[in-house]
Amino acid sequence: MGTFPETKRTFTPLRCNHCHNAPCERICPVSALHYIDNGIVNIDKERCIGCAGCVMACPYGAIYIDPETQTADKCTYCAHRIASSLMPACVVACPVEANIFGDLDDPTSNISKYIQNHQGDVQVRKPEKGTDPHHYYVGGGNVQLNPLASFRVEGHQLFNKLTTHMPVGGHH
Amino acid sequence: MVHEAVAATNAVVTLDVGLPGIVWGWIITMNMWAKSIGTGVIFMLFYLMKRYPEAAGSLRFPVTVVSIVFIHIFLLFTVIDLHQMFRFWHIFFTPHWTSAITVGAWIVTVLVLVLFGMAFATFIKKDNALFDKLLVWAVILAIPVTLYTAAIMAEATARELWQMPTEAAQMILAATLTGSATVLLMGGNLPYEAKRDLAVILGLSALAAFILYMSELVFGPIKAEEVAATLEAVKGHGEYTTMFWVGQVLAFIAPFVLVILSVTNRSAGLLKVAALSAIVGLWIVKHVWLVIPQLLPMS
C-alpha cells in the first residue's frame, strides 16, 4: 500500500465470500456448488464435472480447479468442522483473532456484536456485483480488496506464480 | 442437495488463491466457432427453402450433414474441455435448471435428435415433406442453441465484457455470418439470386458484428472499471491487439468489402474468398473475446 518509499504491507484473506446470491451456485450445471442450511456455499467434488463455469462466475477469484482432483474447489468455511460444532481452521489458527466466524442472525453472537461495534467501517467486496457476500471486512481498504485498484505487472498477483500444483496437505 | 459432513479428522486443506492461466481457452473457442456453423447452416437452409424451394431442395441432405458434423465438433470440444469429462452425464441425471450450461445441453441433445431425424427423412426415407416439418423444429431449437452460450457468459458475472445483450446479438450474427459463408462455399446449383441473398446476409452480419465490437471498444469503458481494464488488452500495445485486429479484418471488414465487390461485379470467386475469410476470422475474433477477460485478476 502507498507510494514508494512510503509503503507498507498488509495481509487480507480473500477467500470465498459465501454469497447469499452466489453466481457460482447459479451457473453450476450439476449442483456441485450448493447452499447448506447455515448459509455456507459448499462444494461436492464427487459431483463436479470440472466445467469451470463457477471459476468464470466468481467475481472474487475464489474458486479454482484443483489440479489433483480436476474439480472445482474453494474455501468451504470448513463446513465439515462446522458440522461437528468446531470453528473453521483459519479462525482457530489465527494468533490475533483476525477471522471471526459466527451467526449473523443471532444478535448475541460475537460476529454480530463485532460488526455492530464497528459500524461505518464494515464493507464487503464488490457490492456492485449484487452477490450479497457474507464475508465482511472491518477496516479494509480499496487497495486490499479491489485487485483493479492497484497496478500489477502483467497481472501477476502475490501468489500467482505457484511452482507446485499440489494443494498443501494433499487430498484424501 | 448433497451436504458434506466429513469428520474433522479428515479435514481437507484447500488452496485459498486462484491458480494462474486461461481456464477457458482454445477448446471453448472451437466450441463456439463450430456451434455457429452448425446452427448457422440450418438458418440458411430454412431461408433458402422458403425463398427458392426448387433450387434449394438439393441442399437438404448436404446441409444437414454439415450441421450434424459441426454440432458434433461443438459437442466434442464441449466435453473434452471438462476437467472431469467422463462425468458429463451428470448434467442429465443431476441437472441444475438455473444453469444455462444445463439448459443448453438438453436443448442441443434434442436438436441433435431432430437433425438425425432430418437426415433419415431425406436420405433413407426420401420424404421431403417430413424433412421440411423437422426443419422448422430444427430452426426453433437452433435459436436457443446459438444463444445459450451467451447466457452462460452472462452467468459468468465476473467477466463483465461478456454480458448480455451484446453477446446474444454477437452469437446470432456469428451464426448468420458463418452459416451463409459455409453454404456459399458448398455452392451447389443455387441460382445467382440465392447466392446474392446469402452474400447480403454475410455482408450485413459482418457489418453489424463489427459495429457491435467497435461499440464495445469505444463505449465499453463507460460501463465499468473491469470492462475498461479488459479492453486494454486489445487497445494500443495490448497483449492481444494484433490478434484482435487480424480477427476483425478477416471476419468482418474483408468479407464486407468483398461482398460489395462481388455483388457489384457478379463475381462468385470473390464471394468464396469472403466466405473463407469470415469463417477463419470468426475463430480469431471469438478467441480474443474469450481470453481477454480472463487476464484480469479477480482476487
Write the layout of secondary structure elements.
The complex is a heterodimer of chains A (172) and B (299).
Chain A: E1 2-3, E2 6-7, H1 23-27, E3 33-35, E4 41-43, H2 53-57, E5 64-66, E6 71-73, H3 79-83, H4 89-93, H5 110-117, E7 122-123, E8 137-138, H6 142-145
Antiparallel strand pairs in A: 1-2, 3-4, 5-6, 7-8
Chain B: H1 26-51, H2 53-56, H3 60-81, H4 90-93, H5 100-124, H6 128-155, H7 166-186, H8 192-223, H9 225-231, H10 241-265, H11 268-291
Summarize the structure.
Chain B: InterPro entries: Electron_transfer_protein, NrfD-like. The complex is a heterodimer of chains A (about 170) and B (about 300). Chain A has about 170 residues and is an alpha+beta fold.
Strand percentage of chain B: under 5%
Helix content percent band of chain B? over 70%
Largest sheet of chain A: 2 strands, antiparallel
CATH class of chain B: Mainly Alpha
Number of helices of chain B: 11
Question: How would you state the average pLDDT of chain A, rounded?
Answer: 85
Tag the structure with descriptive keywords.
heterodimer; A: two-stranded antiparallel sheet; 8 strands; globular; B: 299 residues; mainly alpha; Formate dehydrogenase/DMSO reductase fold; flat; Electron_transfer_protein (chain B); cell membrane (chain B); transmembrane helix (chain B); transmembrane (chain B)
